[in-house]
Design brief:
about 375 residues, alpha/beta, Rossmann fold, 2 domains, seven-stranded parallel β-sheet, five-stranded parallel β-sheet, 14 helices
């Protein structure tokens, strides 16, 4: 399947600034990778991705910015790469939220007020009660007021409304949802798409194994479900060892939990297309979109995620046939209804694929991309 970019004129370069090197398994890195693959700009990054994908090839230049790391914060160090980023005239996309990247954007604009600099706002942060949380609160409070001087792009109508509520002008905020790499969209074309009924109650989770992903809730829902028989967990992260130990101590005579770790794109696509339902119980708004939901919908697999303030997760996956408000207190009822009703499941599968094609496909994304940046 030829990529969309092969049918369009060559685009002028757009440089990007992102915290971690794309392509990685994080949504922001995937978005930066997709944009860079459309044209020949440079992607500047502060550190290599810990989960870099060997499947996604790169046809663009990546340049490492030397930084000093203090906990979760990073501070740029003087370097030729740093000066080149600041003083060149090419348009720049800065992927936020990240305090250091916001500093880069502000300094670059100050040094060259006529330069086109776009803020791509991916997520809101949730400060905790710690001193670090206080710093996050101050940063987000200040940045949401200062980014008003830039054109802002975000990933969903939900985040756009949140940014407008924070004081940004509606005319300055546009929407560009996330998109799958062309390699993955091509893979889905070779897989069975749309299922007439759930095969055997197979639930899948794909993501970072971290506390805010609420894998504990996922396992609890899986155990309580009358119709779920297999749970696939794909991904790695700080909770991986604890999760392995916990699952090894479970006794589930009629159910099975498979921990796969990180998988290559082909393996992930095969496992996803053979599953019945993607379930994402994350409860924090820093989980703002969920590109894995697009992967599921492209395979005709329904997905369910919580409705969270300042997050577009529920907007991405919500289907008319669900008749559900995103309240996870009632999700178990919907899960069992989907897994036990062939007619409802078949409708959900077809609606998921239809929503992907009409809202999130690469063809649709490309038209939105041009309207945002060109």
């Amino acid at each position: 399947m030829p990529s969309v970019s092969s049918h369009i004129p060559e685009l002028s370069p757009l440089d990007q600034l992102v915290r971690e090197c794309p392509p990685g398994f994080g949504g922001i890195e995937r978005v930066a990778h997709t944009i860079a693959s459309q044209q020949n700009g440079v992607v500047y990054y502060c550190r290599p991705s810990k989960a870099a994908s060997t499947f996604l090839s790169t046809n663009y230049i990546r340049s490492l910015l030397p930084c000093l790391f203090l906990g979760k914060f990073l501070f740029p160090l003087p370097s030729f790469c740093f000066l080149r980023l600041l003083f060149q005239n090419r348009p720049l996309i800065v992927h936020l939220p990240c305090p250091s990247l916001f500093f880069f954007a502000s300094l670059a604009k100050l040094l060259n007020p006529r330069r086109r600099i776009y803020i791509y706002w991916h997520a809101f942060l949730v400060p905790d009660s710690s001193f670090y949380g206080f710093l996050v609160f101050i940063y987000q409070f200040i940045s949401l007021r200062l980014i008003a001087i830039f054109p802002v792009v975000t990933t969903s109508p939900v985040l756009r409304d949140s940014l407008i509520s924070a004081g940004l002008r509606a005319s300055r905020v546009s929407i560009l949802p996330c998109v799958l790499p062309s390699e993955f969209e091509s893979l889905t074309l070779s897989m069975p798409r749309c299922k007439s009924n759930p095969s055997s109650g197979v639930i899948i989770f794909i993501g970072r194994l971290d506390s805010y992903k609420r894998i504990d809730l996922l396992i609890d829902l899986f155990i309580q479900s009358k119709y779920a028989s297999v749970l696939h967990v794909v991904g790695s992260g700080p909770d991986e060892n604890a999760l392995q130990e916990f699952c090894s101590n479970l006794t589930l005579p009629t159910k099975r939990i498979n921990l796969h770790g990180c998988l290559e794109e082909l393996q992930k696509c095969i496992l996803l297309s053979s599953s019945d339902l993607l379930l994402l119980p994350s409860d924090k708004c820093n989980e703002a979109f969920g590109i894995v939901q697009l992967e599921a919908m492209a395979c005709g697999i329904p997905s369910l995620s919580r409705c969270i303030e300042n997050s577009g997760m529920f907007w991405v996956c919500n289907l008319p046939c669900y008749n559900w408000d995103g309240n996870f207190d009632t999700v178990l009822t919907l899960v069992d209804y989907l897994l036990s009703s062939p007619s409802l499941y078949s409708l959900a599968s077809s609606q998921a694929l239809s929503r992907y094609n009409s809202t999130f496909s690469r063809k649709v994304w490309h038209n939105n991309f041009l309207s945002c940046f060109y």
